[in-house]
Amino acid sequence: MHDCGYLAGGRAGSMEMFVICDEIFDNVLRIVRGVDVNDETLAVDIIEEVGPEGSFLGHKHTLNHIRDELHIPRLFDRRPEAEWTKLGRKATHEVAREKARKTLEEHFPKPLPKDVQEKLSAIVIQAERDQVT
After folding, report:
1. 117 lies in a domain?
2. For position 133, what pLDDT does the model report?
3. Model-level pTM?
4. Based on the structure, what is the number of domains in the chain?
5. Which pLDDT score is estimated for 69?
6. Domain limits for position 52
């Protein structure tokens, strides 16, 4: 996957589209990861404990594993339409714009370690020298 955030065949960039692509990539990565099948995830002992008419939803085992198995979107709204409408019916691109703006305002990446900065600077200087000759 490439061209995250690009539109018009790569002739334009969009922060909203970048945020949307990031959400899609998260979902794809969850799908590609697959499902772990082992004694812990099969939980045969829990199936026997809960029984055929019981509920697994409130069981500690379910609570411990549900976030590993579900993809919980940060952008796409999965609420019922009535609830989504009551909350203002924001379109995906509007939510993406808000998330992009918030990220640009609040995210301050940690600087690279000094030795890495120096190595990168040396690479750039060498590349510039090579261009001249």
Report:
1. no
2. 64
3. 0.69
4. 1
5. 85
6. 6-106
Residue 38 lies in a domain: yes
Domain membership flag for residue 128: no
CA 64 to chain centre: 20
Q: Could you report the per-residue pLDDT of 50-100, keeping only the tens digit for each?
A: 999 999 888 999 999 988 888 889 898 889 999 999 999 999 999 999 999
What the block records as the tokens of 50 is 């809960």
Q: Which residue is listed with tokens 């000094």?
A: 114
Is residue 74 domain-resident? Answer: yes
DSSP characters over the chain: ---TTEEGGGTEE-HHHHHHHHHHHHHHHHHHH----SHHHH-HHHHHHH-TTS-STTSHHHHHHHHHH----SSS--S-HHHHHHTT---HHHHHHHHHHHHHHH--PPPPPHHHHHHHHHHHHHHHHHHH-
Res. 2: pLDDT tops 80: no
